[in-house]
Amino acid sequence: MKYKLKITPVDKWIIDPVNRFIGKSTSGGIVLFLSAVVALIFANSPLQHAYHHFWEHKISFGIGNNILLDKTLHHWINDGLMGVFFFVVGLELKREIIGGELSNPRKAILPIVAGLGGMIFPALIYLFFNQTGEAHSGWGIPMATDIAFALGVLFLLGKRVPTSLKVFLTVLAIADDLGAVLVIALFYTSDISFTSLLIGSSFLLLLILSNKLGVRNTIYYGILGVGGLWIAFLVSGVHATIAGVLAAFTIPANVKIDEIGFIEKMKNYLQKFKEADPNGVPTVTPEQLHILEDMRTLSKQAMTPLQRLEHGMHPFVTFVVMPIFALANAGVTLSAETAETGTSYVAIGVALGLLLGKFIGIVGTSTLFIKLKLAPLPDGMNFKHLIGVGFLASIGFTMSLFIANLAFTNPNYIHQAKIGILIASLIGGIIGFTFLYFSHHKSKLNPQKMN
């Protein structure tokens, strides 16, 4: 039976193209890259002072004459918007642990230990160059991998790389994100207010209890998570982004109706809708409307709140939160002293930590586990793929910039760290992409040398 779907000019020229762009796996990385480029252009143009001054505008919240929160726009982005980013990271982590790649220990062990190695060696290399003083606290900067950028570069290679390689990098980056969250929670916190922390913990326990009691309303979790947990952590001294991860882990990850029940009930509703008398006008009848509402409710019951939230928030984080973060943090003003800045111990430690540390940690640790037969190399992957991933993981961008702002109070150190991050991310991305691109070409010419 043929049916006619009405396509409006708005659908044809705006909605459909935008949805196609958002649906592409490379789009997030492209938008993030363009945002970073725009930030660099502004920071090195005649508007550079206006650019830097813009992020220092104060935004305050309070009741009456009592100001409760008073922070710069830059801080609201790094503490507020990035809290949303970490919330989605937490949702992804929970999903992967429950039913994803992290749920199978045998499949997950290699990328997890690779991620661990890719955190330890960068920190050691950084500490080799910065052993004392405030610069010492920047050891966490080169530990992180920017999952959006790294996967964006990998997906640009299309079918030149196996799916198993994309899965490997995804799990590695997720394990890396979890490690970064723990590092932030344990080492990059200010003076702790135990009263605020106790209040935040109370909200966390309430969220956990709500999950156990079967509450599935995502708005309810949002109100308690933001209005209670996030604000309490924000003023406690423990970085507020940790609240995002903790709140995400309280979101229910179970369905209310199983697949068989969903199919049977949906068939029943479809039959009722088919038998309902149409009214011959564009609007549906009250009976049809009630059936459609029941179908929508049933569809929500067949989805976990966790996956529904992740699916709904992912575009916002990818195309709003991360680009704004890049605009606010990637603007490095290059000057006559840039060459000197780039050769500072902080910049060198960050750059070599990302480039060499990630490569040594990921490739070396993985090779050791494979040779000792403690973990298998994923099907379809070879050691050339592993080397390419080692370089792509040196793209630290978003997470590294974020940690740099937590690690230092001295603006010169922050500037030096940004130079090192940008250098390593650019070089690592180019080398990783080029190596994987030509490795595929050689593999096609010499199929017997694939492994």
Structure description:
The protein is an all-alpha fold. It has 2 domains: 27-188 and 239-254 and 304-449, Na+/H+ antiporter like fold; 259-301, no CATH class. Helices cover 71% and strands 3% of the residues. It is built from 18 helices and 2 strands. It has helices at residues 9-23, 27-43, 48-54, 73-99, 105-129, 147-156, 163-187, 194-213, 218-236, 241-249, 259-275, 286-301, 305-329, 338-342, 345-371, 383-392, 397-407, 411-445, and strands spanning 58-63, 66-72. A two-stranded antiparallel ribbon has the order 1-2. It is globular. Residues 445-451 have low confidence and may be disordered.
Instruction: Write down the domain tally.
Output: 2
> Which class of secondary structure composition applies to the elements?
mainly alpha
> Total number of β-strand segments?
2
Summarize the amount of helix as a percent range: over 70%
What CATH architecture of the largest domain would you give? Up-down Bundle
Terminal residue distance:
51 Å
CATH superfamily of the largest domain: Na+/H+ antiporter like domain
Strand order of the largest sheet: 1-2
What's the main sheet like?
Answer: 2 strands, antiparallel
Helix and strand element order: HHHEEHHHHHHHHHHHHHHH
Structure at a glance:
The protein is mostly helical. It has helices at residues 9-23, 27-43, 48-54, 73-99, 105-129, 147-156, 163-187, 194-213, 218-236, 241-249, 259-275, 286-301, 305-329, 338-342, 345-371, 383-392, 397-407, 411-445, and strands at residues 58-63, 66-72. Helix content is 71%, strand content 3%.
